[in-house]
Amino acid sequence: MTRLTEEMIKNVPSKMSDLDRELERIIGMDMKEFACHAMNVDLKRINFSDHKAAIVPVTSGGGVIGGFSLSVEAALRTMGMSSFITSSCDVAGISEAFSSGADIIFMADDERFIALNTRTRSFSDNIWSTAKGYVTALRLAEGSLVGKRVLVVGAGRVGTEAVKMLKKEGASVDVTDIIPHKAEVLEARYDNVNAVTDVSLAIRSNRLILNASPGSIPGSLIQKGAVISSPGVPYAFDKEGEKNAKVIIHDVLSLGVAVMAVASISLSLFDVPASEVVAERPETK
Ligand code: 2YJ
Questions:
Q1: Does residue 136's CB lie within 6 angstroms of at least one atom of ligand 1?
Q2: For the residues of 49-89, what is the DSSP string, one character each?
């Protein structure tokens, strides 16, 4: 999984209202409405300020990323949640979060990023939530995905969850990866999923694209009027791609965090089963 960098997220807090406006323009909802819609929850049923979130900086692996906790906090505050960053990292930070009465604890290492609901002792995760958010955004931008063909670029963990969700949306799915075997595994596992070995050909042949890869996509490959939902980091598109596409939905962190928050709240408010809001573990593949 791509590790975020300070450079990638440096503008997240200051651009939060731009993201809200951009979402309004493309899909007619702000981030909070959008996350509730993705989770199939009526916005009026959640009082966001009732849910106190702690963000715990984590030093393991590549260490703390400057601005990461601040960016998560900014996304949660935009949704009206009361949120704070613990003054300590790691285990001391978790104990601080509990003793401060946090209902949800956000924490990430290099592999996993979870929103632990302290009331239910279950959590939502960023992989599942990112896939959910970007599949939902693609559907809203396109109107409906029923009977349509969607290309998933990148057969990693977000891509795999997206493939499953797109099938549930009624789409037929092409999947491509620079390591063809990864796409072929998904083709073998799921009906109506077609692995395409030639990544460029796959992109050229599809108008609806969910990009969950870290690679860049040359604009010359993108169809005029393409509708693209792109959680992949770093940002994949050049000026030509932006001109050709009708819509590119992308942000580095906030949409996934927004869906994680509503998913984690749903664990306690709506008895959502914990298994529904996490990605499958790689070892079960
Ligand atoms: O607490 C910190 O500052 C760091 N331990 C954050 C680590 C962030 N984790 C990653 O970048 C992972 N690759 C997962 C990111 C998921 C974003 N979609």
A1: no
A2: GG-EEEEE---STT-PPTTHHHHHHHHHHHTT-EEEE-SS-
Q: How far is the CA of 27 from the centre of ligand 1 (A)?
A: 27
Name the β-bridge partners of 173.
150, 193
The alpha carbon of 3 and the centre of ligand 1 are apart by a number of angstroms equal to: 6
User: What pTM was estimated for this model as a whole?
Assistant: 0.96
Give the closest residue (by CA) to ligand 1 atom 17. Answer: 253
Q: Cβ(109)–Cβ(61) under 8 Å? A: yes
For the CA atoms of 19, 25, 28, 29, the dihedral, rounded to the nearest 10 degrees, stands at 10
For tokens 């949800």, name the residue: 104
Question: Which atom number of ligand 1 is nearest to the Cα of residue 4?
Answer: 11
Q: Is the CB of 57 under 6 A from ligand 1?
A: yes
The tokens describing 119, both together, are: 């009331």
Q: What percent of the chain has pLDDT over 90?
A: 95
pLDDT band at 283 (very low <50, low <70, confident <90, very high): low
Q: Ligand 1: distance of its center to the CA of 96 in Å?
A: 20
**Interatomic CA distance for residues 97 and 78, integer angstroms:** 20
231-250 pLDDT tens trace = 999 999 999 999 999 999 99
Residues 69, 64: Cα–Cα separation, whole Å: 9
Nearest atom (ligand 1) to Cα of 68: 3
Long-range contacts of 11-16 (CB under 8 A, 24+ apart): 12/67, 12/70, 12/71, 12/74, 12/75, 12/251, 12/252, 12/253, 12/254, 13/67, 13/70, 13/71, 13/73, 13/74, 16/74, 16/75, 16/78, 16/254
Measured in whole angstroms, the distance separating CA 169 from the mean position of its chain's CA atoms is 17
